[in-house]
């Protein structure tokens, strides 16, 4: 991989790969795309079958069509979520609350979705009936996309924005029948900065031998940005 000397460590990358939804209006060079997608293709899968495929849309005519199509899906989904998840209720009416900031970020993301620098579709090629484990053969590869992008100073976010337009995408891209669209990932150079992910303290998520009891050693490293609760 190029530029290795400037990369963050793996541990640092794990703690700072948060969703990036605002991008500078610049393309991702092909050698960087190569490195990011190489990372994706190194992911594990059940029996090492590697049933994941990626389509990468940049600035070709077809890419623009795909971005525009999924932008419609994004708008539909966000309108639904905004109303349904009460984004405008409670602290959503306060100017600078986390809820309001999230709503503004989403609004901006969805509005500019058709112009994202790169859009990646992650596909699972089903080789048997759907089962609860099948996502585990494609989502690790998706996370690798985000981690590898982070390593190169780029960022992105995994979304389900294709959900409302899967039929149209199947037609436009002539997917085989067993292709399941697992994720839409957008990528680009962050307009803001990378920063620590915010999660609840690890002892709320990691138990020892007793259900519900944080393991005694499950202590966040000093300086970890934690959420008070969910
Ligand atoms: C399964 C899954 C589905 C997601 N779907 C969306 C989505 O449709 N739109 C979006 O903007 N972000 C989506 N996200 C990103 C999450 O909102 C984000 O990871 C979460 O809020 C934590 O924030 P962080 O990644 O910045 O730490 C999704 C993430 C996952 C893992």
Automatic annotation (TrEMBL):
Record-annotated Nitroreductase domain positions: 15-189
Keyword Methyltransferase: no
Organism of this sequence: freshwater metagenome
Protein name: Unannotated protein
Gene Ontology MF terms: oxidoreductase activity
Keyword Transferase in annotation: no
Similarity section: Belongs to the nitroreductase family.
PANTHER family associated with the record: NAD(P)H NITROREDUCTASE YDGI-RELATED, NADH DEHYDROGENASE_NAD(P)H NITROREDUCTASE XCC3605-RELATED
UniProt keyword annotations, A-Z: Oxidoreductase
Pfam family, one: Nitroreductase
């Amino acid at each position: 991989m190029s530029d290795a000397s400037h990369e963050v460590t793996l541990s640092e990358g794990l703690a700072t790969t948060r969703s990036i939804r605002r991008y500078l209006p610049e393309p991702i060079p092909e050698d960087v795309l190569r490195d990011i997608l190489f990372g994706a293709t190194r992911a594990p899968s059940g029996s090492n079958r590697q049933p994941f495929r990626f389509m990468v849309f940049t600035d070709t005519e077809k890419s623009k069509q795909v971005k525009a199509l999924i932008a419609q899906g994004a708008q539909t989904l966000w309108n639904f979520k905004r109303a349904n998840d009460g984004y405008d209720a409670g602290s959503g009416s306060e100017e600078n609350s986390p809820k309001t900031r999230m709503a503004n970020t989403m609004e901006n993301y969805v509005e500019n979705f058709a112009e994202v620098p790169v859009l990646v579709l992650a596909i699972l090629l089903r080789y048997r009936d759907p089962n609860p484990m099948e996502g585990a053969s494609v989502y690790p590869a998706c996370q690798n996309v985000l981690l590898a992008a982070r390593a190169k100073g780029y960022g992105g976010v995994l979304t389900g924005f294709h959900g409302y337009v899967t039929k149209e995408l199947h037609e436009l891209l002539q997917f085989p029948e067993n292709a399941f669209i697992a994720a839409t990932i957008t990528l680009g150079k962050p307009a803001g900065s990378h920063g620590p992910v915010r999660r609840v303290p690890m002892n709320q998520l990691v138990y020892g031998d007793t259900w519900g009891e944080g393991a005694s050693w499950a202590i966040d490293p000093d300086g970890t940005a934690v959420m008070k609760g969910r």
